[in-house]
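Continuing from the previous page...

OK, I double-checked the sequence for CREG-like beta-barrel domain-containing protein against my notes and this is the correct one:
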Amino acid sequence: MAAAKIKSTALSVTHKCRNILAAGWEAHLNTIKADAKGSKEEVYTSRVHYMIQKGTPYLIVPENDMHNINIVIDERGSLAVCSPIRGRVASLLKSLKQMPPRVAMTGDVLRLKDSKVPIIADSLKKAIMKEHEAASAASHGVSAILSSAGATCRSRSEGLLSLLNEESSYSIFKFDIGSCVYIDSFGSSHNIELDCFEPPKPDLLMPFSAKLIDGINRSDSRRRALILFCFEYFEVLARNAVMLSIDHHGFDVLAKVPERAVLGNVPHQYHWKEFRFTFKEPSKDAEDFCRTLVELEDEVLQSVKSYSGLG
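Thanks. Re-ran it with the corrected sequence; updated structure tokens here:
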């Protein structure tokens, strides 16, 4: 099979953590409240933007946000980044009493030297524009998926385009990571060894992942293809299936499958189960990912036709 392995390789926790950081741009920042007398040891939380450049997280914080004052007294902070899951998948996870996976980090929120601020700001803007230009130049197939995503789904460049406005007033801070934890959908925590952790590099797939996933899940034909994938590679008869996550190495599907074999007239009991599909070759960008997915759909369809007598 040209597109995927039959026996899929599960992603490591470290890789899942890196994918979440690469796909997102919004985070919740926590700092210690401060006043003229110093730290109150109370926590202040607000939503901020972030981007990772050359392995370093940079926080983009409005100038009127209290974080600007808090870190003058106490640089300690924590950052929570949630997987940018939207649409059907978010609703499904909620119905299953699960949460989107997330990454929690502690560290120091550091001010940049005045001479470095415009350099980092320019680098961030160039990265945003590169993603925006890639979306504008996307092929018809990729554009169709992106445009079919729901209104709540945005690519990172769409979420950060406002920062290109010269009138925007914000501060840029460096977040020096001290610890990192991956929290899965069931709430279990997994510590990440920073010595082995490689931060995400700039790419043209993960920033579009939320829109690609929702666009795929809004297509009945593509969701039927996910059901065929489960049958072809795992020999399970799924009643329903959705794309759960994507990355350079493949994708994860959440499918509603029978719990176990039943006898007589006892009706099937179904539960939702996750399946991993791994590409033979990593996808470079959104174009490459979508092209590989279409090839996989065609292969599976031809395979099913060949032994069903429809070919």
